[in-house]
């Protein structure tokens, strides 16, 4: 007390007891101590998940109690807690993180725990150990002088030595007739039974029988206010015997808060000599009476804990029935969990209310166990017809299934119960109707958003959300509504209203950690759909990850990264994407929730798809789709089905893509989701745009952009930026939501993806892998028999480059058997036929006796590949991707029947191979061996066998510790050569 007064400010005092080695008991007792010290302060409620993650709760409790002022926390008798108790480290971490003016005074007879050493170094902890408290010679001399009676036989040094430094031991020596024997110090050792005998002989035996019994019973109780102990001992009101005993008996006193303090040595002596005076049944009775007195006095947490610690299960059952509803409304489920966790299962089974509250308090800590407890409780409540508990248990069971997030099919049977529960809720009143509305909304949101009654339950839940409810209940509803209005529906305006209300009721100082972190996730979720640039989304994700680490809620990291990856991949920010994928992969371990595994597979597939690795993308996205179906969430098959359709289209498996898309679009329409309609409509439009009848894209695009324009979506998952640009250009040309289409081009920066009018009008000549002349995506070579002479001339002109070649040289190579006059006539007619085949006469330039193709009017894949080989500003990956897009096979020199063109084919082939090997080497240098192996294999399959690529593939396989099937790989490569 003197030290606290010297430090100044408010102080919180807690005397440790062995039961506080349990984290729930410690947090409940500490919260009670804070509430006693700061009765007018609004302190954070103890949620059940706070017991699992105590550091964050302790931070918030200390901050709420201090409020910027100096605060001292005194932990007395800390030595009774075992060294392995997690309490030490948790409280030390919380205090060291606190930026306020807090000091901790540790009173302990043992050496301080290592966790506190850091606090000593920074001046936040003061250790009061036995060396500081033990008697010195000056104090002994004062004690001898002040003591009544004949103390002449004692000198100060002798008293210090004989008492072993124990102040109470010295008092006992002076008070007793004990001689100054040389073995006095040994007899006063704390573990000596002689000391216990001396205490009993000098202090306890002189008491009257009633006082001795009263003292033995009081010693079985924790440190409680005198009036509570008196009530437990069944003393009449106004009886002063206990107070008088505390005033006159050594080892017993009342502290400044009028709590009865009985020294551990006296408790040990009483237990050693009078254990038969108070049996287990009497101890339980005393604990029950004291606990009930605490409850009546308003100290609910301590009262429930004392009933639990005393094994007073009948009294605890009655107390839970009375106090749990108000604790639940305050968010104090951690107090309930701490009280019920020690209760034997047989006792829990005696009461449905106990089973319900136990399951409810487990939700934030162990949802799987909560689901098990609540499932059994639901079966039991239906059999015994306790209707007032049916709806609360039903709703809590829905929460446990969602939190467990492994098998949402379990919700189907609960949805079937709704008609029966609706009638029951009307009879029971608004509280039951509110609980039912939330449960029905969540169950249908996850499993049956296409249910005909879902709009009704959604509106009911929304109405209750805007009513006055307990804060934690409002926050829970808000988070669930935001999930619906963001990813499931994409309703910007409803999401904005819910978010505004959430911000109004949210108090970060008092909210449980799980709500704080869920709020960060909700913000990132909202922004990923409606933030155009992505900057706010990425900031929200990063601040959320930081908050999760601070509050020990890394469970939410996956949801945050899910939101950020949607935006990064939509923007095709590949560096950021891979950084976030790495962060997500770290969090996808054996214990990760199944949805996180599906998230990871989904985004890896998307990244493969953007890289042109379509086979790999298909394998991974099908795995994500299967995982989504196993989980049973209605949203996953739509999102992932749309992704499968995108990959299949890229693989030119159009019929299969249409089948997947059809299922996704129908589900999106049934779920009444503008976002899903928008995303699936974009994919349908692009499938139609690339068909033989591009105008069929119009109805798809009208539906998609109508949904998008209403909500102003800026997320186009699984529609690439190039595809999006082409679709928006098509929409503008066909007068489809032109304002929104122009807005998307502007805010998403799609203008650079749209080819200019001149580029769009240019004819494309394909000379790698096959020969073709394309206008747009349509071939101009419609005849069954290809015109051989114009094609041969085109092949020679391509190999000649932009400068072209002389007419005479071309004629000699094309028609060596003709004379000069006939060759000139044949050349003139062939040039004419080539112009007709291309469709633009300006594409063939004849000037100064030379013939050339004009790159301003025609684009040629071979020229583009050669230019790519030396073009600056390309990353290795981008150059490789573009090279494989252009190089569809060898140069078509065989059309010209001229082996002299083989050298040009070798140059083209070398350009493609160099792009591939450069990319593989960059991956090897960065240590990305799996991808290096995959890319080198792809190069061998596409470009044919090359020793350099084969060596790179072998090197990557050796680093990965896998065997490279050399024969199969070489056979595939040789097959590629022949193709």
Q: Quick recap of the structure?
A:
This protein has 979 residues and is mainly α. It is 65% helix and 5% strand.
**What is the count of β-strands?**
13
Low-confidence parts lasting 5 or more residues at pLDDT below 50?
177-192, 757-761, 972-979
The CATH class label of the domain at 137-296 is Mainly Alpha
N-to-C terminal Cα separation, in Å? 91 Å
List keywords for this structure.
979 residues; mainly alpha; Arc Repressor Mutant, subunit A; four-stranded parallel beta sheet; four-stranded mixed beta sheet
Describe the protein.
Helix 12 packs across helix 16 (264-274) and helix 19 (313-329) runs antiparallel to helix 20 (333-340). The strands form four sheets. Strands 1-2-3-4 form a four-stranded parallel β-sheet. Strands 9-8-7-13 form a four-stranded mixed β-sheet. The longest helix has 25 residues, at 902-926. By secondary structure, the chain is mainly alpha-helical. 65% of the residues lie in helices and 5% in strands. The chain has 52 helices and 13 strands. Among the domains are: 2-133, no CATH class; 137-296, Arc Repressor Mutant, subunit A, CATH 1.10.10.10; 368-467; 668-754, no CATH class; 762-861, Winged helix-like DNA-binding domain superfamily/Winged helix DNA-binding domain (Arc Repressor Mutant, subunit A, Orthogonal Bundle), CATH 1.10.10; 867-890 and 900-978, no CATH class. The protein is elongated and about 145 Å long. Mean pLDDT is 84; it is low at 177-192, 757-761 and 972-979. 46% of the residues are buried.
């Amino acid at each position: 007390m003197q030290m606290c007064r010297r430090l100044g400010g408010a102080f919180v005092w807690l005397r440790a007891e062995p039961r506080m080695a349990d984290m729930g008991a410690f947090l409940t007792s500490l919260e009670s101590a804070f509430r006693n010290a700061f009765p007018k302060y609004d302190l954070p409620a103890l949620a059940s998940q706070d017991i699992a993650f105590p550091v964050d709760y302790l931070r918030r409790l200390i901050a709420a109690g201090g409020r910027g002022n100096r605060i001292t926390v005194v932990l007395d008798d800390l030595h009774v807690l075992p060294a392995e108790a997690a309490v030490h480290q948790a409280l030390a971490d919380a205090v060291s993180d606190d930026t306020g003016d807090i000091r901790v005074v540790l009173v302990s007879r043992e050496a301080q725990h290592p966790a506190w050493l850091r606090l000593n170094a920074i001046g936040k902890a003061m250790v009061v150990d036995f060396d500081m408290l033990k008697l010195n010679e000056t104090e002994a001399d004062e004690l001898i002088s002040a003591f009544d009676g004949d103390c002449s036989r004692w000198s100060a040094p002798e008293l210090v030595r004989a008492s072993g430094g124990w102040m109470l031991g010295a008092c006992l020596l002076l008070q007793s007739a004990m001689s100054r024997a040389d073995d006095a110090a040994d007899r006063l050792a704390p573990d000596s039974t002689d000391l216990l005998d001396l205490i009993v002989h000098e202090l306890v035996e002189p008491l009257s029988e009633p006082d001795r019994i009263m003292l033995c019973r009081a010693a079985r109780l924790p440190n409680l206010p005198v009036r509570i102990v008196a009530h437990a001992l069944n003393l009449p009101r106004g009886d002063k015997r206990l107070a008088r005993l505390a005033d006159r008996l050594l080892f017993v006193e009342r502290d400044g808060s009028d709590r009865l303090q009985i020294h551990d040595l006296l408790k040990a002596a009483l237990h050693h000599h009078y254990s038969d005076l108070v049996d287990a049944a009497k101890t339980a009775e005393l604990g029950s009476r004291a606990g009930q007195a605490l409850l009546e006095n308003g100290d609910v947490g301590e009262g429930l804990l004392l009933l639990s610690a005393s094994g007073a299960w009948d009294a605890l059952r009655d107390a839970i029935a009375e106090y749990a509803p108000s604790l639940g409304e305050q968010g104090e489920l951690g107090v309930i969990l701490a009280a019920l966790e020690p209760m034997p299962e047989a006792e829990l089974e005696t009461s449905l209310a106990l089973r319900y509250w136990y399951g409810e308090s487990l939700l934030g800590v162990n949802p799987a166990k909560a689901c098990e407890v609540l499932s059994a409780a639901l079966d039991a409540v239906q059999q015994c017809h306790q209707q007032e508990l049916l709806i609360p248990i039903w709703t809590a069971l829905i929460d446990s299934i969602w939190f467990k997030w492994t098998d949402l099919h379990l919700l189907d049977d609960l949805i079937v119960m709704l008609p029966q529960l609706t009638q029951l809720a009307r009879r029971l009143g608004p509280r039951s109707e509110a609980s039912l509305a939330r449960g029905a909304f969540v169950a249908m949101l996850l499993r049956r958003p296409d249910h005909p009654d879902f709009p009704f339950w959604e509106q009911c839940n929304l109405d209750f959300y805007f009513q006055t409810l307990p804060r934690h209940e409002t926050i829970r509803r808000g988070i669930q509504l935001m999930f619906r209005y963001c990813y499931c529906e994409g309703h910007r305006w409803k999401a904005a209203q819910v978010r505004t209300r959430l911000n109004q009721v949210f108090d970060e100082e008092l909210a449980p950690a799980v709500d704080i972190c869920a709020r960060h996730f909700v913000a990132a979720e909202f922004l990923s759909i409606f933030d155009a640039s992505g900057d706010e989304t990425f900031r929200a994700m990063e601040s959320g990850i930081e908050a999760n680490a601070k509050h020990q809620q890394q469970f939410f990291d996956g949801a945050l990264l899910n939101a950020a990856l949607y935006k990064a991949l939509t923007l095709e920010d590949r560096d950021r994407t891979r950084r976030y994928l790495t962060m997500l992969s770290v969090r996808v371990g054996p214990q990760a929730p199944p949805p996180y595994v599906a998230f990871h597979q989904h985004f890896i597939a998307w990244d493969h798809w953007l890289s042109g690795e379509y086979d790999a993308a298909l394998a991974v996205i099908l795995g994500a789709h299967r995982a989504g179906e196993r989980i049973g969430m209605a949203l996953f098959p739509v999102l992932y089905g749309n992704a499968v359709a995108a990959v299949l289209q890229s693989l030119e498996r159009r019929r299969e893509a249409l089948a997947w898309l059809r299922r996704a679009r129908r589900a999106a329409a049934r779920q009444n989701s503008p976002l899903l309609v928008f995303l699936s409509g974009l994919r349908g439009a692009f499938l139609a745009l690339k068909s033989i009848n591009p105008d069929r894209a119009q109805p798809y695009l009208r539906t998609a952009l109508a949904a998008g324009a209403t909500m102003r979506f800026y997320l186009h998952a699984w529609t690439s930026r190039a595809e999006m640009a082409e679709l928006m250009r098509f929409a503008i040309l066909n007068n489809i939501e032109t304002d929104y289409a122009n807005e998307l081009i502007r805010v998403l920066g799609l203008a650079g993806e749209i080819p200019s009018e001149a580029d769009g009008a240019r004819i494309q000549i394909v000379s790698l892998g096959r020969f073709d002349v394309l206008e747009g995506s349509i071939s101009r070579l419609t005849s069954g028999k290809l015109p051989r002479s114009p094609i041969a001339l085109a092949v020679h002109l391509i190999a000649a480059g932009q400068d072209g070649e002389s007419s005479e040289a071309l004629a000699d190579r094309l028609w060596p058997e003709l004379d000069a006059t006939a060759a000139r006539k044949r050349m003139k007619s062939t040039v004419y036929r080539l112009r007709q085949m291309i469709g633009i006469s300006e594409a063939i330039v004849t000037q100064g006796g030379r013939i050339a193709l004009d790159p301003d009017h025609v684009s040629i894949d071979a020229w583009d590949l050669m230019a790519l080989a030396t073009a600056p500003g390309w990353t290795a990956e981008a150059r490789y991707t573009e090279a494989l897009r252009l190089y569809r096979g060898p140069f078509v020199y065989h059309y010209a029947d001229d082996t002299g063109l083989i050298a040009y084919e070798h140059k083209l082939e070398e350009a493609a191979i160099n792009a591939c090997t450069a990319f593989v080497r960059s991956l090897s240098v960065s240590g990305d061996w799996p991808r290096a192996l995959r890319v080198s294999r792809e190069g061998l399959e596409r470009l044919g066998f090359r020793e350099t690529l084969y060596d790179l593939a072998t090197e990557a396989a050796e680093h990965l510790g896998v065997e490279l099937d050399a024969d199969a790989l070489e056979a595939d490569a040789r097959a590629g050569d022949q193709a």
